[in-house]
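Follow-up to my earlier ticket, as requested here are the two runs.
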Amino acid sequence: MANRIEGVTERLLQSAMEEFLTNGYAGASMRTIAENAGTTPRSIYTRYGDKEGLFSALVAECAGTLKGMLCTYMENYGARPVDEQKKLFHDEQFDAEYRGYIHTILDFIYENRNAFRLLICGSEGTKYAGFIDEIVEIDEKYTLLYIERIGSDVISSGRAKPQLIHLLCSSYVHGFFEFIRHDMDKPDALTYIVQLQSFFACGWDHLFHP
């Protein structure tokens, strides 16, 4: 069976990564991928079903892991006593924990840099094209839970409608991943993200504590 030919799967994945990074999903050639891997298009279809199946083999695990990391972090924050959560923008311990969390996220992304380049810059035409919007949904979900959990009147008072909460979460998350689009080195990305977070924290603090 094709699956048992030693090294073919590894060569296919490497070849596919290079082809998708160079030409994007729509422009990638299955024939070129197969030829560069020293095999045939049929072997790709045998293993992965179709072009999107091959793309998925390169990015699915990373996408799922990152979403899981985000949810775990937010669930853990939500498990804190409410009085602690109310100090969100004025808590040095939280700031230190957040920086550690950002380091962990960046370490994971840069360990899988090419996969995330595909997810963010080369997934148009696949089910992963909405990856960033899925992260937005997670961020928005936990932001609304936070508002409810601490009993904030930020929405009930009219200071922020739910649409604004969505726009702010979307702006932050889309902005967060710009370091991948701009191919930043990790130290530059860390500086950028800390600055981005500080900027948004001031805005959120103003909404919660006018």
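Run two:
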Amino acid sequence: MEYNIALQFEDGVTGFIKCEADETVAEAAYRQKFNIPVDCLDGACGTCRCHCESGSYDMHPDMYIEDALTESEAEEGYVLTCQMIPESDCVIKVPTSSEACKVGKSVFKGKLQQLNVLSESTIHFGVEVDNPDALVFLPGQYVNVSIPDSNETRSYSFSSIPSANQAEFVVRNIPNGKMSTFLSDNATIGQEINFEGPFGSFYLRPLIRPTLFLAGGTGIAPFLSMLKSLEVSGAHHPVRMVYGVTNDFDLIEVEKLEEVKQNHPWFDYRTCVANEDSIHERKGYVTGHVDNEWLNNGDIDVYLCGPLAMVDAVSNWLDSINLKPSNFYYEKFTPSEQ
């Protein structure tokens, strides 16, 4: 038995290691040449103190001293990687940079296998990577995709899940944009496409309470990955979504949301369009279409992915209704960085 351990570094880089049964995280990391902070290996110094965001593990108090990790810290999910033995897949936050730990960014080479214009504002593409077993990420994360015949990259969130045959992306078609021009005018099926990553602290945590997804434009992409993952793992708490766009033609992949809703009673969603000339049944911004009962008196996790202005607007809206959610995770983008 072995488990996937995601190591989240402070600079946004995520590294993945395999941890075998009865092997500590520190042992597994060093075996795979990840130099995470560690010193004594005896649970006495606290150098390897990290925070486990999700997953189960064995780490009894008699395996370390209180000077290294207090009882209250252990109850909050802090761990000593030199004593932590995973019992499931885990996500661990490492309080240092990937560079300090000599963790290189993973580069994936692949070929373009899908290319679809979903609307005049949105393009979908899929890449078949050369080493699919090595493509591991957390649903919601992004990679830097290289623009062929240039030294530039664009940051795109996965709309697929790690177990998919292809890495898929839903991106904005920006007039005269370098990646948009390539995809619209020059790309051919079978052409080499490379990317590096994964990156980002915007990813799906374990569902332990009702959850609200707020998506703006192509910010729908990471939520597609999250929903596909939840279809596999299941959800024991309600997941609601409001998906807002500027124009009617910007609404894409709604049929996939509808499919999840029809097949899984834990999911519900609604869409809205900001343009006043829209013929859509719901106009305005996402904050105007969130039911009060969805907010669960603040005992809720909120995930938001959209343009910078949307992130600011939602933050202001939460302040205006005097609601502090249990957790508020967000990813913001600009026109050149999805």
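The only thing I checked on run two: The CA atoms of residues 57 and 125 lie 38 Å apart. Let me know what else you need.
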